[in-house]
Amino acid sequence: MANAFFSDLLATISERGRNLLRRGDPEDGQSDASGLVKLCEALLSGRGEASGTAMAREVLDRYHDLDEAGRRAFFEALARDFGPDREKLAEAIRAWQALPGDGHGSDLHFASEPRRQELIRRLNRAPGGTGALVAMRSDLLTHMNGRKDLAALDRDVVHLLGSWFNRGFLVLRRIDWSTPANILEQIIRYEAVHEIRDWDDLRRRIDPVDRRCYAFFHPALADAPLIFVEVALTETIPGAIAPLLAVNRQPVPTDRARTAVFYSISNTQRGLGGISFGNFLIKQVVEELRRELPKLDTFVTLSPVPGFASWLKQASDVPLSEAERELLKRLDDPNWIESGPTVDGLRELLEPLAAYYFLRARNSKGRIIDSVGRFHLGNGARLERINWLGDLSPKGLRESAGIMVNYLYRLEDIEKNHEAFANDGEVVASSAVKKLLKNEGRRLLDMRLG
Q1: Which of 14, 51, 266, 303 is catalytic?
Q2: Which of 208, 257, 353, 363 is the Cys-Cys partner for 233 at CB 3.0 to 4.6 Å?
Q3: What is 332-371 written as a DSSP string?
Q4: Which fold has domain 168-301?
Q5: pLDDT for 256-294, tens place per residue?
Q6: What is the pTM of this model?
Q7: Which CATH architecture group holds 2-164?
Q8: For 199-212, what is each residue's pLDDT tens digit?
Q9: Residue 376 catalytic?
Q10: Catalytic: 303?
Q11: How confident is the model at residue 2 (pLDDT cuts 50, 70, 90)?
C-alpha cells in the first residue's frame, strides 16, 4: 500500500508539472522528432527533481505519439547527437595521460559515458518509465535491422536495462488458477513453444497436481511476467510432447513423480531481449521443486529443435547420397508422417544427422546452430536424448522434422558443463547421443568406401 501511495503521489506531481510545462513553453509543443530532441536536451540540462520527472513523462508520451518515421528519426538523433561530451572527454584524456592514476582514471570513465545514458536514467524516473523504456527498446530492435549506426544506442539501453533487471530485483511467483486473470491472459498470449488454445487448455497446464508454472516478475512491472516456464511432473523422462498435453490424460500423483520436465519457456518482453533471465529461472525453479517434492531426482527439458529442418535443406558440410537426398525431400510434404514405410528410413537417417547437428555442425561464428540448444547448454545442461517423432504438431514437423530433445540438469554437473561449453564450445552429451554420432560417422565412411 505504501508503494502504491507514493507511486500515485509521484504521478500526481508529474501530471501537474506537465500541465505547467505545456502552459509555460508553447514551443515545446512540437510533435515531431526534432521537438522531442529539444525536450530531451532540456531534460538533461534541468536540475529540479519534480520538473524533471514531469518532463521525463512528457518525453515518453510524445515519443509514444510519434509515427514509425518519427521514432526512427528520434533513435538516429540519440545515436548521433547524444554521445560523450567531446570537450570533457578530451580534457579527461589529457589529464590521465599527464598523470595516470585512479583519480584521473575515474574522471576518464565518467567523461566517456554517452549523454544518452543519463537521459535514459532520467526517463526511467517518470511514472511508468521503466515499462515505457522496455517498449521503446522493442521499437529500437525493429528499426535496427542490421544498422550499425544504431548499435551503440542499443548497447547503452541494454547496459542500463541489464542493471535494472538484474537477478536481485526479480521475484519468482507460481502461476496457478487463482492468479489474477490479466496475468493468466498474458500466459496464453505469450506462450511461444506450444500454443495455448483457450482457457480450458491453460487450466490443464497449471491446475492439476502434476503441473506447475512459474514466472519472474519485476517490481516496476508488477503485473507483467517477464519470463515463465511450464513444468510437468512425471515418473520417467518423456520423449514426446503429445502425452503431456493430452486432454484426457491421467494426472500423476505427486508421491509417484520422480521427474520434473521443463517443456516450455517463454519470454514476454521483446524489449528485454539479450538480457538473460532463463538460467536463473530454471535453477530457482529446481530449488523450489526440490523443497516442495524431495523425491524428485531428475530435472530435464523436453525441447524443440527449431532450426533443424532448415539446416537439413542447406547443410553443405554433410555428404549425402542421392538416395538420401531424395528421402529428405519427403519432409517437404506436410503429410510426410503419414507416408508409412518411408518413416523408418527417415529415422535411420535423421537421428544420426540430429546428433551431428548438435555435436559437430557450427554457424559462421563457430557456435552451435540451435538457439534452444545454446540456451540450455550454456546454462550447464547435458544433451541427454534425441527423441524421434517427439512433436507431431504441424509446427514441430515443419521446423524440427518432428524431433525433440531432452536436456538434463544435474545440479552437481551444471558448473562443469557450463565451463566446458563457454570456454571450449564443448557440447556435453550422453553416451546414447554420442552413439548416434558414431552411426553417422560409419555412414560417412561407408559412402567414401562405396
Answers
A1: 303
A2: 257
A3: GSTTGGG-TTHHHHHHHHHHHHHHHHHHT---TTSS-S-H
A4: Aminopeptidase (3.40.630)
A5: 999 999 999 999 999 999 888 888 899 999 999 999 999
A6: 0.87
A7: Up-down Bundle (1.20)
A8: 999 999 999 999 99
A9: yes
A10: yes
A11: very low
